[in-house]
Amino acid sequence: xxxxxxxxxxxxxxxxxxxxxxxxxxxxxxxxxxxxxxxxxxxxxxxxxxxxxxxxxxxxxxxxxxxxxxxxxxxxxxxxxxxxxxxxxxxxxxxxxxxxxxxxxxxxxxxxxxxxxxxxxxxxxxxxxxxxxxxxxxxxxxxxxxxxxxxxxxxxxxxxxxxxxxxxxxxxxxxxxxxxxxxxxxxxxxxxxxxxxxxxxxxxxxxxxxxxxxxxxxxxxxxxxxxxxxxxxxxxxxxxxxxxxxxxxxxxxxxxxxxxxxxxxxxxxxxxxxxxxxxxxxxxxxxxxxxxxxxxxxxxxxxxxxxxxxxxxx
Length: 314
What we know:
The chain is of the alpha/beta class. The protein has helices at residues 41-55, 96-104, 113-124, 183-187, 189-200, 217-225, 229-253, 268-282, 301-311; strands at 5-11, 15-21, 27-34, 64-71, 75-76, 81-84, 92-94, 108-112, 133-138, 142-148, 151-153, 257-261, 291-294. The longest helix has 25 residues, at 229-253. It is globular and about 60 Å long.
């Protein structure tokens, strides 16, 4: 299907975004709202439907082919179920696909947010033209998706690609998922900020937190750019962690390209030298020619990838 329009919806615990998308990945209109995360499924479905109606206002109904939803997991995308989304109250064995389809009066495709973003980057972004790609989002948490042999790798119940929950350090820090030592517990933006706050409280002379200033990832990278010693050490540590995790993904999936998305990818130029040094010190030499690049579509990767499922359900 190569004509018409699709609605892409990116459901998150903090924000819901929706866009009207063309078959070539072009966004015609995009809106967002803060998620009523504690209000239950009916309220959230209402928010999604409201945004979908707003982005498609004035568009002929018969030109809209359907909606694609990018959602955090765990999901059973085959059955269209939200199995247990920890950031959204009441989304336990909830028929997300059917509920939204009934509300919209349109067919709905449901995809894990990491896989949806991987599809967006593969079809229209940094991984376009490659048959083997890994997408890793590094933000509040770490998620991902895999393209293998020109096909989306979904696995049982569509749950493949949870790269943030591969074991990174046995018996280590507790992850959002409840396990100890996950990659996400060390490499996510949340973990990076936590380390920065802890280090700043015991390091004299750093600009981080000076005068009561907020310490977050953006502040750390800004201070690093200004030459702050602690901030640069924190950036290097984060790059080492990401390089270690990415090396494991190269060994597992042998991609042509690894695409880094999420909020921390905005600082890819600062991370890259140390990240690549770490990756190449661990990855076997045969994997050293794998491209590692930032996402091209930014925070629209999942929106565009979800919409793409309407035109090409793969």
